[in-house]
Amino acid sequence: MFVAPAVILLALLVAYPFLLSLYLAMSDAVVGAGGRFVGVAQFARLLRQEIFQQTLRNTALYAVSAVVTKTALGMILAVILAGFSRHRLPGSRLIRALILLPWIVPTALSTVGWKWMFEPQYSVINWTLVHLGVIGYISDLQWLGEPHLARGAVILVNIWRGVPFFAINLLAGLIAIPEEFYEAAEADGASSFKRFWFITVPLLRPILATVILFSLIMTISDFNIVYVLTRGGPLNSTHLLATLSHQVGLLTGEIGRGAAVSLFMLPFLMVIVFYQLRLMRRAWEW
Amino acid sequence: MVARRRRAAAVYYLSVLPFVLFSLFPFYWMVVTSFKQNSEMYDLRAIPFWFRQPPTLEHYAFLFSRTHFLTWMGNNVVVAVVSTAAAVAISILAAYALARLRFRGSDALGGTIFAVYLVPTTLLFIPLSQVLGFLRLVDTRWALIVSYPTFLVPFATWLLMSYFRTIPYDMEESAMIDGCTRLGALWRVVLPTAIPGVLTAMLFSFTLSWNEFIYAVTFVSSTAQKTIGPGVVTELIRGDVFYWGELMAGAVLGSVPIAAAYAFLLDYYIAGLTAGAVK
Amino acid sequence: MPVRLTRRTFLKTVGAAGAAYGLGLAGRFPQIAVGQERELSVLMYSSFVPANDQELRRQAAEFGRKNGVKVTMDFISIPEMAAKQAAEVQSQRGHDVIALENLQTALLQEQLEDVTDICTGIAKKWGPWHPVASQACFVNGRWLAVPRNTVAFHGTYREDYFAQVGERFPASWNDILRAAKKLRAIEHPVGFAISSCGDSNNSLQPLLWAFGAKAVTPQGEVAIESPETEAAIAYVQELFPLMDREVLAWDNAGNNRFILSGRGSWTLNPVSVYMSAKGPTPDLAARLNHHGALLGPKGRFGIGDFYSFGVWKFARNKGAAKELLQYFYEEANMNAFIESGGGFNLPAHPKFDRHPVWRRDPKLEGIIGYTKWQRLTGWPGPADRRAQAMWTTFVIPNMFAQVVTGKLTPKVAMNWAARQLREIGYS
After folding, report:
1. What is the pTM of this model?
2. Is B241 on the interface with A (CB under 8 A)?
3. Which fold is adopted by the domain B61-278?
4. What is the CATH number of domain A41-285?
5. Overall domain count for chain C
6. Beta strands B237-238 and B241-242: pairing type?
């Protein structure tokens, strides 16, 4: 009874659509005409397609590089912010709020801002680089036009948006570590690196793992950033599973195939959530 | 001693500076651009960082008078508030049950609710649009209000569950011995203690709601029902013309409410996370 | 037998009534209102020119008054139309009249009413439609939508820059290449998109056609690997270094910005560039001019985004819907619609080709009659989902992009494109 509302909601609006998407993915349904059951034909066809293989590679690259960078930068930032709070330095509240902005602001809107910053002719980044003498002409670096640069651009925006999330959550974890642990270690003569490695990291492990897994899920299924910046181009170099699914399912009207594309996220997400659940269970018994 | 502290402080401030600049620069850019005149924006000789011609309010004026921005803002608020309220209410109930009540399969159920995260919005949006179409909710705010809790509830439940576990059981026990129902105990005893956790859950849910994009862009196409994100992205780009000034103005205004909310409630947010997430 | 009004019955009835009232209020109950047949709703794209939308609203309201029908006109932006159509088809309810772009008529053919009587009636009155109109709307022997207008990809160029290098009104792709060399020298290059955007699809397809090349045959067989395609690729390879590298990153607005900044000297685009310049930078606008379809070795071809109106099979008021479409095509109304577009919308029927709006402003004379050169995207292949996939996955622009960036040689690129097309479903 207590759990009933949650269960009903999720059954109706998650479980059922999920099953529906499985059904769609095994059909050749298109917009405007129903489909017949085709088994795994859609999946097989996708795996043979270059654009899909490219998308899988893109998604893997995007997820791994973004999450690794966010972890590193988030950790560093969290340590700095923890220092602020430990030494009770003024302005820490303001700084935390400013740091958090990229994550709390609607991604669609901030990405539009980035789009203007990457704009081929008026890019402020290029303008700066020209005036620093790094490049010759303002349209030399086509951030959204050359595949490698475009990949870098979307990953950069993802990192920009995600670091605050890591930082704030890791900060919460750092604050929770009692000061006495460090004082005792310092009294015993441990260097700051040793203190970090033997006290901080193990205690932070549960929350670190949780945040990483969470972020992996959100990054693998990301849609906003690529949709607004490049729509998957140039040359399909930035297509993620979600954007490809949108393009195939809605823009081309092949709903069955679009559903099949999104379902490819499932195996990865299952592995991630499996580990996350195991971790949570362990954390509770802590 | 004082000098050492000063040096340590300086190190902290200096090392946080690049992060702050990196975080803030796009916003600075958005704000400045939103006040620039069109002729300056497209002037290749102008310095982008500051104004060459006097700043103008024309983009904001355009936003308010010639687009439905205020309607979108209103929709965003309504959708975010209602879906957050619904999601948190549902989550409180579910989290309490899972944290306190040992019934058969409660572990599995908890795991399942959280495993719903397995199914991201970008996987569900196509079939969900069909379900919502069947329920005749498509192209209304209700489509969003009804579908948003699906991704808010799992995380909120998890957060509140771990929060509730940190609250000692004796308070509820004594309340129930005194004649309270379980629901009454939850309402009168547990919730007041759990305010930081609830606040964190609400803030987090509100953020995710406010920022949601793919459902909003897929389920709603009528201008009057849109939220800010899709409204700005789809209607300030007419054909092949980007109304950059208005886009930036819309982006700025769309971010202000939520930034304000966090400015006030950030400490609670961290407190809630600290107690609930780490333990 | 009298019904015993127990408390429970009373409560149940009141409860049911209240629930029904509530649901009805929330609008989830099917409307069983009397007089349902006197309502009509239309879903249309919002035009680049707001005056267009207003004119359509006016005409719809007039129709409504004359026929005692309540007409609602909704406008949404072009990128959202696909999802909206999908949603209405899914729930089998929505508007009565639906706007359709390019291939959508063919894609949604099972959901559209037959409007052959309207279209053949117009043809009987005024003569045959432009070829692109039947390509878009005549599906499997029936007219499934009434063609309306096209937003065409003719050329926009800076007269003064061209004059500066001794060039005049460009009429062929060779003219462009020749002028491009000289224009590069004065740092006012030409440009069109070679990127993942609609403009790029619309720039490169007519080029292929003008060289006698095609992606697929009318029977749906892949035909991109050919000497004609090679010739087209060779042309673009020569032209690319004379353009700015940023054309690889352009979205649909890229070429507009290019011209409006004063740097660009030529691009392929509808008159939106000219129109958006007229207000803020009138002297730049004064130096712009337009030209029609360019001639290539094997002919003259054009393209544009083609728009029509269809009636859903599940429309609640099909009779009135068809009458409305007929009404829109009364001469005075069509003339008024074209007038309100300021020249942005070209007609689907030759009768309106020489509308005064293009003769009043000398700058617009170059595009008169452009529609007759137009072909539908994917031509000469059949209008179907594969053509749509070719469009949304940017096969043609990607083929050219990989050659000009040196990634693939022309032969390998053509082969790549052929593979893409086969993956899409062509044979």
Report:
1. 0.82
2. no
3. MetI-like fold (1.10.3720)
4. 1.10.3720.10
5. 2
6. antiparallel
